[in-house]
Specification:
Conjugal transfer protein TraG, Rossmann fold, 12% strand, 13 strands, 26 helices, alpha/beta
């Protein structure tokens, strides 16, 4: 039974004795009046006593029956008619749009603790739980970072991947998330100082000959898409050459397996590309490790084309790969420090930092990153794999700047079932349509059950939002005055008024533009639109207190709220709110690429800092008398895997031990971290 039905049933049960008493008293009074007497007082026993005394008198019996009918009609008939008229009232002609009440917000489940913070009503945060997606439409400089992204990075306790254009999110929240049990990584391939974790898209490719071709082609679909392309021949041909070169690298242990190496192999090493590839195939055929049939078939298909066609295919191949000619980008994508396949198996926070001035250059690389994130996390359902116990929130700031992410356009309808949750941020709907087209953009927006709208600046968006909020029926009064045509005619002036029902938008386009920078509108599925305040992190004591626990400088300001200058000093000057990031050894990477390997001389000094070990990454050994052989092997392998290797075979050993290192971190985290973000939330009672 619904809550409304239960309320109606309770009201009827409460009214039944009251109605009986009222009908009885009124029937007694009516019977007294029927006998031409004035009732002295209402009495519950008057009518029953009269019935027992006069029921045998035919005249009085009719009067008693009439009085009972009057009492019953007034006591039960009139309330029933009133109830029917209220429940079956005529619907307003032009609708009855309005903003949601507190009870409706409560019924929508927005006053929970776990989920995505979408706004604030009074002193209570609006937290959208579940698996549905959230879309934020906000113009530039409207506070989307400080009111949506940063509050959620200081609250959301599951895994996150965030596109961090300005590096503000990492600077403010990474140390807090690490302190609460997350493995924190920063992928910043354009870092001028080389401070970045590494991610190599080819490391995730399965080395099984039966599966690797399909996974290599999945990467090729991102680099050389054929959808929305008029002449797909060149991209298809370039993808074939990319497949052949990648397979040849994978089958050559002495070469680094990276997209940068694919670009270097495409140069021909000083030879025409056709001659280079034919020599490569012939040389390997005579060796003990010939190239596979899949590899040689792809390379032969390329070499079978004409010289002009071959040149165009080669140009198409290298066009998206020129980004890897940058030594920093090449080094940042030469190995992998984190596994995207583990996002739902353990708590991880990955910040993808791209400088704003390099966003256009990095669009394809970032597109590939998020494509691979979705590709490998939509394989196993959480219901079929108990290890996948965490949700992953993907925050995409400046989402259209990535370009068209084809896998996202197709997977948006079923991603939620895999515990992947999207929070894309766009400036306007027209910006999204320019990338995905009108139909795909509409489908993309429709799959977001919660849409947050900031005050728009574009008139088209304001009109669209106004239509989305709906209309209500307003009473319009028009008045008119008629005057005589000639003065002195003797006729009097007259006036008239006309009442009519008109449709009025809940908020007009100009009113939406004037919404201000403190307020937002939430359009939620199955709920009236919600007018709320923005939850700006720097004005919320609960978030500032969390930062004070991390930063000694912020803690020194005491109980007062820090100023913006003090927050920026803690984050960007003192760097007390962010974790330390390893620095790329560009000289070592260049030496590996150029294969500058030589024996060390007896009197040559060595830089022993290269042998420094991060003991926190080693798997724990339980305190007992004799460690098991498996524990000893895992400890030794994890220790050896941290060495800076110069041989590809040893690199493979290091890569194979990445899972051991991650398992060690996970076990240490589970053992040392006693409370999660939600536990701390419950203590503070602010959410």
């Amino acid at each position: 039974m619904s809550r409304k039905s239960m309320r109606i049933a309770m009201a009827l049960l409460l009214y039944l004795p009251l109605g009986l008493c009222g009908a009885d008293a009124l029937a007694g009074a009516v019977f007294t009046l029927a006998n031409k007497q004035m009732p002295e007082a209402f009495s519950l026993s008057s009518w029953p006593d009269s019935w027992r005394a006069y029921r045998d008198d035919p005249i009085q019996r009719k009067r008693l029956q009439f009085s009972a009918a009057v009492g019953g009609f007034v006591g039960f008939g009139l309330p029933a008619l009133l109830l029917v008229s209220l429940t079956n009232r005529k619907k307003p002609l032009h609708g009855e749009a309005r903003f949601a009440s507190h009870d409706e917000i409560q019924r929508a489940g927005l006053y929970g603790e776990r989920g995505v913070i979408v706004g604030k009503v009074g002193r209570r945060y609006l937290v959208y739980g579940g698996q549905e997606f959230v879309l934020l439409a906000a113009p530039t400089r409207s506070g989307k970072g400080v009111s949506i992204v940063l509050p959620n990075l200081l609250h959301y306790d599951e895994s996150v991947v965030v596109l961090d254009i300005k590096m503000e999110n990492f600077a403010y929240t990474s140390k807090f998330r690490q302190a609460h049990g997350h493995h924190v990584y920063l992928f910043n391939p354009f870092s001028a100082d080389g401070q970045t974790h590494r991610w190599n898209p080819l490391d995730a490719v399965d080395r099984d000959p039966n599966r690797r071709v399909g996974e290599i082609q999945a990467i090729g679909q991102v680099l050389y898409p054929t959808e929305q392309i008029k002449d797909a021949f060149w991209n298809e041909s370039a993808r074939n050459l990319y497949l052949g070169l990648t397979l040849s690298i994978m089958e050559t242990p002495s070469l680094p397996c990276s997209l940068g190496e694919v670009l270097r192999q495409a140069s021909g090493k000083g030879q025409p590309i056709k001659d280079y590839l034919q020599d490569l195939i012939a040389t390997r055929a005579k060796s003990d490790a010939p190239l596979s049939d899949d590899c040689t078939a792809a390379l032969h298909r390329f070499c079978a084309t004409s010289e002009n066609t071959m040149a165009s295919i080669l140009a198409t191949l290298t066009a998206p790969l020129t980004i890897f000619s940058n030594p920093i980008v090449d080094a940042a994508t030469s190995a992998t420090d984190f596994d995207l396949k583990q996002m739902r198996a353990q708590r991880m926070s990955i910040y993808v930092g791209i400088p704003a001035n390099r966003l256009s250059d990095a669009a394809l690389l970032v597109n590939l990153f998020f494509s691979q994130l979705i590709h490998y996390n939509t394989v196993d359902l959480p219901a079929t794999n108990p290890r996948l116990r965490h949700q992953c929130l993907v925050i995409l700031d400046e989402f259209p700047a990535l370009g068209r992410v084809n896998i996202l356009a197709k997977a948006v309808g079923f991603m939620a079932g895999y515990n992947l949750r999207l929070l894309p941020i766009i400036q306007s709907l027209s910006q999204l349509e320019s990338v995905y087209g009108e139909k795909d953009a509409r489908t993309f927006v429709t799959n977001h059950a919660c849409q947050i709208l900031f005050a728009p600046r574009e008139q088209r968006d304001a009109q669209h939002y106004s239509q989305m909020l709906g209309t209500y029926t307003a009473e319009a009064i028009s008045t008119g005055t008629s005057r005589p045509l000639a003065w002195g005619s003797g006729k009097q002036a007259s006036s008239s008024s006309t009442h009519s029902e008109q449709a009025r938008s809940l908020l007009l386009p100009q009113e939406l533009k004037e919404l201000g920078d403190q307020r937002a509108i939430i359009n939620l599925m199955h709920t009236k639109p919600i007018l709320c305040d923005k939850a700006r992190f720097y004005a919320e004591p609960v978030f500032i207190d969390r930062l004070k626990r991390i930063s000694p400088f912020l803690a020194s300001v005491g109980k007062r709220m820090p100023t913006q200058t003090e927050l920026e000093e803690a984050a960007f000057v003192r760097r007390e709110l962010s974790v330390e990031i390893p620095r790329l050894d560009l000289d070592l990477h260049r030496a590996k690429v150029e294969r500058r390997v030589r024996p060390i001389q007896p009197d040559e000094p060595m830089d022993l800092s290269k042998l420094a070990m991060d003991l926190t990454t080693l798997p724990p050994v339980l305190a007992h008398d004799t460690p098991t052989p498996e524990e000893v092997n895992n400890l030794v392998d994890a220790f050896v895997a941290q060495l800076q290797w110069t041989d590809k075979v040893d690199d493979d050993i290091s890569e194979k031990m990445s899972s051991v290192r991650e398992e060690g971190r996970a076990q240490r985290t589970e053992r040392n971290v006693d409370r999660s973000l939600v536990d701390r939330d419950r203590e503070e009672r602010d959410i």
